[in-house]
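Tutorial, part two.
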Amino acid sequence: MASTYSSNIRLTKQGDGDNPNTWGEVLNGVLSLVDQAITDYTVVSIGSTNSVVLTNNNGSPDQARSATIEFAGSIGGAETSIFVYIPAKPKIYAVRNAVSANTTASDALILKVAGNDGVTVAAGNNFYISNGTSVFSVGNQGTAGSRDVGVCTTNIPDTSLADIRYVPTSVSSTIVAEKHFTKYVNVVGASASSAAGIKVGTNARAYNTITTIVSASACITIDFAVGNNFLTTLGANKTLKAPANAVAGQTGSIYLVQDGTGSRTLSYNTVWKFPNGSVPVATTTSAGVDLIAYSARSATTIDAVMLKDFKR
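Running the prediction step on this input gives:
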């Protein structure tokens, strides 16, 4: 009776009476192929053509039988997508995608069974299953920043209630429910034209770093979009201009520090309003420190009060 092969991973099935003098050798070959199917790591280099067919041999080593397959090489140039064809047999594939895409974001490595739709292989280490017709990704999480949780029951992964509290880190997200933090949150990486340095600590303590304003001109211009608290040293007589990007409801403070000479005066744009309409006069002593506490009633009306001459 002639030998045949198993249907999925193509192992030799010896027929009755076959290989009377070499059956042990054939059996060892089968065991080697089982070893390949369970533990082997095969590197497949893709070329410049638009498709790669994984080898699948009956009774001898091949690429498709390997437990883990690494795809290497690069996509680009004439082809933006390269199709990798696997046998039309059920199997689990552990895949390391080390292929580089060197032209556009549309470059893709696609795993498929001939004549059927495939699946784009994500970069890095992933698992895929085939039912002999279609290919499916299995729990590919990607990077932490891409791990979105949808709103349907099919989108929710198995997790504890304590862990349903994270949002993607690499894309814009909106938090629509209350969040409680037991450690401080430090917002970093902001530019000079955006809000930065906001820290939320324990006991609902929130604070904003002090932004130093350096002005070589006769006017001091403060950008309220940068923060809430500011400090400027008066090295000459100055005028505090209308702040840029003022928004109703913003509150904060402005430290005024006299330089080593002192006697510097401060005038105000008309958007600055004071109690009883009395414009405050800054402390004039050398190194004197005053504090203006402000609250934006509107974008063009800033209510303020000066606390003067801080010292011990």
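The mean pLDDT is 83. In part three we will examine how such features are distributed along the chain.
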